Amino acid sequence: MIPVTTFAGKRVAVFGLGGSGLATASALAAGGADVVVWDDNAGRVQGAVETGLKAQDLRDIDFSTLTALILAPGVPLTHPKPHWTVDLAHVANIEIIGDIELFCRERAAHAPNSPFIAITGTNGKSTTTALIAHILKQAGRSVEMGGNIGTAILSLEPPAQGRIHVVECSSYQIDLAPGLAPSVGVLLNVSPDHLDRHGTIENYAAIKARLITKSDAAVVGVDDRFSAKAADGVEAASRQLTRIGIRNPVSRGIMLQDDWLMETTDGSAGKLFELSLALNLRGAHNAQNAAAAFAVCRYCGLKDDEIATGLMSFPGLVHRMETIAQEGRIRLVNDSKATNADAAERALLSFDHIYWIAGGVPKSGGIADLADHFPRITKAYLIGEAREQFAATLKGHVPSELFDSLQEATSAAIKDARNDAAADITVLLSPACASFDQFSNFEQRGDAFRTAVFSHLSNDEMHRDQS
Prior knowledge:
Elements: E1 11-15, H1 19-30, E2 34-38, H2 42-50, E3 68-71, H3 84-92, E4 95-97, H4 99-110, E5 116-120, H5 125-138, E6 142-147, E7 163-168, H6 171-175, E8 184-187, H7 195-198, H8 201-213, E9 217-221, H9 225-236, E10 240-245, E11 252-257, E12 260-265, E13 268-274, H10 284-299, H11 304-313, E14 322-327, E15 330-334, H12 341-348, E16 354-359, E17 361-362, E18 377-383, H13 387-394, E19 400-402, H14 406-418, E20 425-429, E21 433-434, H15 442-456
Parallel strand pairs: 1-2, 1-3, 3-4, 5-7, 5-8, 6-7, 8-9, 9-10, 10-11, 15-20, 16-18, 16-20, 18-19
Antiparallel strand pairs: 11-12, 12-13, 14-15, 17-21
Helix pairs in contact: 5-10, 5-11, 8-9, 10-11, 14-15
């Protein structure tokens, strides 16, 4: 745990008592703050009380007695409308911040030169975060990994000289972290997502770009116009910058060419790493993740051969392009983390002859932008709120069938794949949707897919991937 000493002796309120909210409240209490907690969910409030935290309905509190309101990242700050606690904090003119901001203040107070790598992007940020942490650990560095990737940042070990914090940051977390100033900031990409929370793509992009605004060095994917603009801003401020170009070449930075990561400097290019050697970094999207990790680890002082070793030994990320089983010619892939069409595109581009399981809570635009990849899909198995919408988009292009549950869709996809004589077949869960209509999160959805797969494949028939 990181005790939050910067609020010692001050009264603060914490709203939102999921995993990160509980960790935040406990860290504040451990640092000497007078903490009161609340949640709209009575069960979460009871759980917090059982851990020894003091709970009180924040409607009954004089907000002028508080130093700050600490929000869990999932609580609406601005859109579709501010949460009622946010309105009360604005009236009292107290700051509203989150756990990433608390970490930044502790780092500034106690170990301002400790290495801090922050990663964001619409897609790829979890893989890149895990990849950077893996490479650094393989090279013998002391690494703490957390944030949006799973472990609450305040549950990690405190900042210290020689201890590297590798932290995934969502747009929600960045919005609550005005003091975010990492040693190395990574912005991978920006595409439409979470617009219900941020209002417009322009506002969403601006929030993402804040992560690199104050970073000592920035690594930026420049294949989309929003990220390219953010990179130009870093360059204009005369700070260290590495541009990453996968679809488009870059004159100074790292780009992809014929399965090689290439370092470019004013027109000249040199080979860095052959991506085919990294067995669990398949697809062009992982080229961007690998290039970003290469640049970050160089900033951290690693040698190129150390980075290459880490890239080749990376085991991959659970729920992201994860091969969970192989039955003869049939590969079964869990890509539950693909919660929007842009993320699903990356999976569709990585395979041919796909039996595609998709659906859930649709994002803006649905799957219309995936039309160029429909020829890769043999059949679609559609679930959730989006199933009728997706079926209409696929009509005339891809045969599709609607199901009430993920288990039913998985069973049908496996049965159809077994009757297919093709040499290389992929049953792919890549929903292109949020999970909240049927599951609490994408992890639960991916676990349900795994259970459904294993229920249909006996131990004699199945070869579980060991990579």
